[in-house]
Write a structure and sequence with these properties.
This protein is mostly helical. Helices cover 81% and strands 0% of the residues. It has a domain at 159-234: Alpha Horseshoe (Serine Threonine Protein Phosphatase 5, Tetratricopeptide repeat), CATH 1.25.40.
């Protein structure tokens, strides 16, 4: 009889804990929805203290930290610690949720973390972060573009060729990604391939007619080509 009583008490306690976790997750989602990120983090964390593998609480906590870091980006404040914490939360979440629904946000988080890391230490190797970002979301052209920039700045032939392939991939898959036209044209220009630079910048200018960088460099390349024609070098 006493054993049955203990079982009932334990069951009631378990049900109470489950109910508390559900309430914390609900309050966390409500706070997240209205932008009360501190309170959202508090509620999701409280739920995870009881149930560390709760997928909804993990997801809500990761999104809360993501929102805080994104807000800091808009305010132009240092963001490394925020994106680093957010990435850790997404990493933990990935062990709980294999559905793929977090992949795009996780990928974007890693892009921002790579950028924040470089802002803090320009010599840091962030390529592994960008590779992981691209692996999570093959349409994250911001990560592709940043990887291409890093490789192009290394200067060695293999890195520059890989950078060129990345930028070509971006403009082929996403023709409105204007930065890739600028960066690809810059590589051709540095190589002395004025025609390819002009072709690339002109293509970008067609899609973004008011882009001042493309306006300027397309004209520079055009003037250079005219000079080469007049001098008999083309």
């Amino acid at each position: 009889m006493f054993g049955r009583f203990c079982y009932i008490v334990a069951l009631c306690a378990t049900l109470l804990l489950i109910a508390c976790v559900e309430d914390d997750v609900r309050r966390g989602n409500d706070a997240l929805r209205i932008g009360d990120y501190d309170r959202a983090i508090q509620n999701f964390s409280r739920a995870l203290d009881v149930e560390p593998a709760n997928r909804d609480a993990r997801y809500g906590l990761a999104l809360s930290y993501y929102a805080v870091a994104e807000e800091a980006e808009h305010l132009k404040t240092p963001t490394f610690d925020l994106w680093n914490r957010t990435a850790r939360e997404f990493d933990i979440l990935s062990k709980v949720d294999s559905s793929g629904r977090i992949d795009a946000n996780y990928s974007t988080c890693l892009f921002y973390l790579a950028r924040a890391t470089m802002a803090q230490n320009s010599a840091a190797n962030v390529l592994p972060l960008l590779d992981r970002s691209i692996q999570l979301d093959s349409l994250n052209f911001f990560s592709f573009n940043l990887k291409g920039l890093i490789l192009s700045e290394r200067g060695d032939k293999e890195s520059v060729e890989n950078a060129k392939k990345i930028f070509i991939h971006v403009v082929t898959r996403e023709p409105q990604f204007i930065s890739a036209y600028v960066n690809l044209g810059n590589i051709y220009w540095d190589e002395g391939d004025i025609e390819s630079a002009w072709d690339t910048w002109s293509a970008g200018l067609e899609r973004s007619p008011k882009n001042q960088s493309l306006i300027y460099w397309t004209q520079v390349a055009e003037d250079s080509l005219k000079s080469m024609v007049l001098s008999g070098r083309l």
